């Protein structure tokens, strides 16, 4: 019996009848006729070393589920890892809308066919602007690290200067992203990145060191508030005044879920606010749920320096309609190739939809309540952990969501401790050994609104046993 | 009334809900969702704590977000989704250079509903993400096979970021060698990111013009642009025009002769997967857009993955962490000797890698090749039909078979009727088609439009799209008023300043809108 040709469900014209008809129409006898422009020496005729297809959908699903079952996850285990990817409650409506095929599978249509998408984008702008007390923003970047990098590049263009100051204790994962971005092939375009020291007691930035490094060569100073290590910076206004007095931009990186209870950086002097949307309704997904944002007031000097698309309200031909447009496209490489403001391209637009729905559901009260629960839960956990003998908190400052636990007096490494926590179905805090100088035996614990009192108590119980 | 089976046209009207802006739906006091409250015992314990937030950092004013019950929020965004035509609901073969394939639902359901991907933290202990790392590792092996490259990184979050990352690798490579090279050569029909991303790293970019007959630069022109200053070439093949440069290897050899690195923008390999490989053409660095060629959805511009492939010495330069296998378990290597470090946090867009693994496993070696073949067959079929539509012409490479896409022109129709590509584009949605892509800038082909039918679309889909183009062409010649006033059946009508260019007129947020129009 002749072997039947496979008809693939995702490739309708693999159907032999149709294929023959179409091949006849284009005058091709076999596949290689279609590729007559590809010379013989470039044709790859061997069978690819990819396993034969799992043709049935059920079998495919089982196959992948079986592999993924080798993972553990934060639904079954109790998780205290954050570090820019904290676990939060995500309302079902966020998932319902984000997974709608229309939003999931749309692409680059102008505003007619994709009118609803653009309205959702502009609503996202509108709600995030309220959270940040700003006016304008572009579509989001790949992650918070890219947002910081582009905020710095914007500041360099605005001030025509080539030096930026950032905290030594900034997210270590972002340092390499930023340094790569500031570095240039041409010496005259090189941007110098300098790190501001921190106060060993509080974890806040060292103001004396900032003052020493700050001068009229500096394009921007960035602080994280809350810091990567959770620390709250209470001298934002003073720092802002120092920074703007030398004509530099004051960039503040913020965790948006804190903003129901924490002041918007723009109100203590930030001229550019940036961050990651992760906390506004995005799943952990092993780091897939990240998206950077940058936002400012609407002056031309800022608008002209964004690198990505900016969507906003446009003027309708039929009065009374809301319509939306693509603003100032001449800034981008789509318009000017090598001469655009940095490169742009596929970013993280789908996460704007998630964040919009999240903010619309939460409302002012929801944002206040979730911030409050995170504040209390993390404080409760920190105090309880710090009462364990030979365990202390690294810093004395108030904090939000995350805090550094110092195990150096316990005689155990964080790695050892976390291994034993794992046996109790707990993901312990991030091991900071090697992340910064003098942070060996320290761990970054993250406690959010999803961690219950019982879970925190159990963590403390386990730590007590492990460290006995 | 169903679709007319003779004309293949249908009576269509997209949803038009005239939805208010979300702020206009607000009723003070309503709640959309309630989050976990502070535990009573925790509250009691911390009762006497002051200054949990420093005074200067306390929010002074409540955030002005809308207050809306859950059902209305859900309905509002459902309606906005209905006013959006993704390829789940529209035949979207018009996104040439990057038409999206079908994103199989079994993949979508799995990545959004399975906790072993959706609820995994990227910093979990390696022993607890063995399944995910296995999928990363195996997907890498399959892509190595398709490309001939020696290693892949899945860190870059999109095609343009992969091009950027390749430029960073090139920069570090020459720094390590102690060579001072600051020029990049690309071609005008390569994606704008091939110019924009290297420029972001500080490179001076030479955009080579094409030869008027063959559609890509001649080898002589290409060689003339190369020098000891050239760090790399960043090129596409086939380019936006769908024309394959059969002498590509000679171009790559010429770059290597001056010591430059050959970087291949393979964002779109729909037409050549399993047919011709980057390795045999001599390339050092490449990237694939996994959200495009390998079935992950586009999400209205991301998140995506630009899978970066490296060969030879360049495999030591890729971003960290790298996934490896010691024969028993999978590992994340954070120390790779020449690595450029990081361009994206964590391990990239992991849920996309799971989708791609599933897609490749569903097709297998034969299916991958079948997909490429059908993408090309669909394109050549469409070209033969569309080139017969009144007013359509094609540029370059006459009589040559194109690969997966084609850039067409309405130049002739514009001359004869005054109506051109933007007019056709505006009318498409009236016949249920999301959109078509004109061309990147500059518009070298006049009145351009770029179509790419991919392997996902059936002959019937392609025929319907062509029937719509024919009908619109007929209208341009015979009923121009209906075109001038289009769209008629979309969620909204015309837009006066879609591409607004004055910062003073930019209204990005509702608060600016209210200010501009004096709304309280």
From TrEMBL, chain A:
Full protein name: Glycine dehydrogenase (Aminomethyl-transferring)
GO biological process, one term: nucleoside metabolic process
Coiled-coil segments: none
Record NCBIfam families: PRK00451.1
Ranges for domain Glycine cleavage system P-protein N-terminal: 10-462
Pfam families: GDC-P
Keyword tRNA processing set for record: no
Claim: Iron is one of the keywords in the record: no
GO MF entry, a single one: glycine dehydrogenase (decarboxylating) activity
Record InterPro entries: GcvPA (IPR023010), GDC-P_N (IPR049315), PyrdxlP-dep_Trfase (IPR015424), PyrdxlP-dep_Trfase_major (IPR015421), PyrdxlP-dep_Trfase_small (IPR015422)
Keyword terms of this UniProt record: Oxidoreductase
From TrEMBL, chain B:
GO molecular function: glycine binding; glycine dehydrogenase (decarboxylating) activity; pyridoxal phosphate binding
rRNA-binding found in the keyword field: no
Catalytic activity: N(6)-[(R)-lipoyl]-L-lysyl-[glycine-cleavage complex H protein] + glycine + H(+) = N(6)-[(R)-S(8)-aminomethyldihydrolipoyl]-L-lysyl-[glycine-cleavage complex H protein] + CO2
Any one cellular-component term (Gene Ontology): glycine cleavage complex
Biological role stated in the UniProt entry: The glycine cleavage system catalyzes the degradation of glycine. The P protein binds the alpha-amino group of glycine through its pyridoxal phosphate cofactor; CO(2) is released and the remaining methylamine moiety is then transferred to the lipoamide cofactor of the H protein.
Full protein name: glycine dehydrogenase (aminomethyl-transferring)
Keyword Oxidoreductase: yes
């Amino acid at each position: 019996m002749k072997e039947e040709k496979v008809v693939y469900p995702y490739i309708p014209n693999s159907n032999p009848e149709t294929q023959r008809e179409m091949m006849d129409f284009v005058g091709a006898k076999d596949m290689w006729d279609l590729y007559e422009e590809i010379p013989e020496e470039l044709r790859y005729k061997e069978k690819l070393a990819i396993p034969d297809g799992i043709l049935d959908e059920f079998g495919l699903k089982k196959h992948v589920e079986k592999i993924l079952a080798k993972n553990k996850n934060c639904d079954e285990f109790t998780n205290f890892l954050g570090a820019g990817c904290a676990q939060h409650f995500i309302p079902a409506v966020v998932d319902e809308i984000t997974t709608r095929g229309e939003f999931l599978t749309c692409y680059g249509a102008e505003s007619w066919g994709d009118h609803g998408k653009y309205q959702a984008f502009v609503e996202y702008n509108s709600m995030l602007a309220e959270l940040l007390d700003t006016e304008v923003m572009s579509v989001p970047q790949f992650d918070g690290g890219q947002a910081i990098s582009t905020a710095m590049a914007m500041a360099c263009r605005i001030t025509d200067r080539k030096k930026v100051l950032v905290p030594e204790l900034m997210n270590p994962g972002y340092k390499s992203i930023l340094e790569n971005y500031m570095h240039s092939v041409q010496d005259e375009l090189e941007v110098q990145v300098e790190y501001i020291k921190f106060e060993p007691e509080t974890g806040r930035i060292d103001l004396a060191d900032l003052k020493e490094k700050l001068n009229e060569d500096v394009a921007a100073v960035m602080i994280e508030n809350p810091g990567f290590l959770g620390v709250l910076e209470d001298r934002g206004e003073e720092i802002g005044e120092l920074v703007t007095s030398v004509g530099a931009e004051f960039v503040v990186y913020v965790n948006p879920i804190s903003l129901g209870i924490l002041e918007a950086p723009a109100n203590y002097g930030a001229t550019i606010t940036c961050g990651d949307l992760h906390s506004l309704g995005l799943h952990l997904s092993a780091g897939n749920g990240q998206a950077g944002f940058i936002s400012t007031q609407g002056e031309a000097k800022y608008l002209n320096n964004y690198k990505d698309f900016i969507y906003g309200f446009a003027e309708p031909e039929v009065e009374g309609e809301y319509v939306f447009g693509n603003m100032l496209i001449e800034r981008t490489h789509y318009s000017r190739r090598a001469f655009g403001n940095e490169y742009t391209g596929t970013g993280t637009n789908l996460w704007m939809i998630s964040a919009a729905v999240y903010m619309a559901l939460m409302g002012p009260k929801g944002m206040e309540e979730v911030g409050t629960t995170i504040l209390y839960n993390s404080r409760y956990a920190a105090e309880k952990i710090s009462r364990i003998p030979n365990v202390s908190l690294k810093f004395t400052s108030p904090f939000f969501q995350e805090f550094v636990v110092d195990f150096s007096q316990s005689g155990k490494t964080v790695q050892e401790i976390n291994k034993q926590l794992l046996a109790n179905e707990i993901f312990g805090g991030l091991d900071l050994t090697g992340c910064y100088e003098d942070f060996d035996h320290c761990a970054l614990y993250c406690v959010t609104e999803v961690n219950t009192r019982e879970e925190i108590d159990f963590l403390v119980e386990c730590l007590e046993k492990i460290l006995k | 009334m169903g679709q007319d089976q003779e004309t293949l046209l249908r009576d269509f009207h997209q949803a038009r809900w005239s939805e208010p802006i979300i702020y206009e739906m607000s009723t003070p006091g309503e709640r959309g969702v309630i989050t976990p409250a502070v535990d009573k015992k925790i509250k009691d314990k911390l009762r006497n704590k002051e200054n949990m937030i420093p005074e200067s950092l306390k929010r002074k004013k409540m955030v002005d977000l809308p207050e809306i019950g859950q059902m209305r929020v859900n309905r509002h965004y459902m309606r906005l989704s209905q006013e959006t035509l993704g390829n789940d609901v529209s035949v979207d073969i018009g996104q040439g250079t990057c038409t999206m394939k079908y994103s199989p639902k079994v993949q979508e359901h799995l990545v959004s509903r399975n906790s072993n991907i959706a609820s995994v933290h990227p910093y979990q202990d390696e022993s607890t993400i063995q399944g995910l790392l296995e999928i990363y590792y195996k997907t890498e092996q399959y892509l190595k096979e398709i490309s001939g490259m020696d290693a892949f990184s899945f860190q870059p979050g999109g095609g343009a970021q992969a091009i950027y990352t390749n430029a960073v690798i090139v920069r570090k490579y020459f720094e390590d060698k102690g060579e001072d090279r600051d020029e990049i050569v690309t071609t005008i029909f390569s994606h704008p990111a091939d110019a924009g991303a290297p420029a972001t790293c500080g490179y001076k970019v030479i955009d080579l013009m094409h030869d008027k007959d063959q559609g890509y630069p001649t080898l002589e022109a290409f060689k003339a642009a190369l020098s000891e200053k050239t760090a790399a070439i960043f090129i596409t093949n086939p380019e936006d025009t769908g024309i394959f440069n059969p002498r590509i290897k000679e171009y790559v050899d010429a770059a290597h002769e001056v010591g430059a690195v050959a970087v291949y923008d393979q964002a779109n390999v729909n037409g050549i997967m399993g047919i011709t490989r980057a390795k045999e053409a001599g390339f050092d660095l490449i990237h694939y857009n996994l959200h495009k060629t390998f079935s992950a959805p586009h999400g209205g511009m991301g998140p995506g993955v630009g899978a970066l492939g490296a060969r030879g010495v360049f495999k030591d330069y890729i971003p960290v962490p790298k996934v490896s296998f010691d024969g028993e378990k999978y590992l994340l290597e954070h120390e790779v000797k020449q690595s450029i470090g990081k361009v994206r946090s964590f391990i990239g867009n992991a849920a996309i890698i799971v989708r791609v693994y599933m897609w490749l496993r569903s097709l297998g070696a034969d299916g991958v090749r079948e997909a490429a073949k059908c993408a090309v067959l669909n394109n050549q079929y469409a070209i033969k039909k569309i080139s017969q539509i009144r007013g359509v012409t094609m540029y370059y490479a006459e009589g040559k078979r194109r690969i997966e896409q084609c850039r067409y022109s309405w130049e002739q129709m514009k001359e004869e009727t005054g109506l051109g590509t933007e007019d056709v584009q505006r009318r498409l949605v009236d016949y249920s088609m999301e959109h078509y892509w004109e061309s990147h800038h500059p518009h070298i082909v006049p009145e351009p439009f770029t179509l790419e039918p991919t392997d996902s679309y059936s002959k019937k889909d392609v025929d319907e799209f062509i029937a719509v183009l024919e009908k619109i062409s007929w209208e341009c010649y015979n009923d121009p008023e209906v075109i001038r006033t289009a769209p008629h059946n979309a969620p909204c009508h015309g837009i006066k300043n879609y591409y607004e260019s004055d910062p003073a007129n930019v209204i990005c947020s509702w608060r600016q809108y209210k200010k501009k129009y004096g709304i309280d």
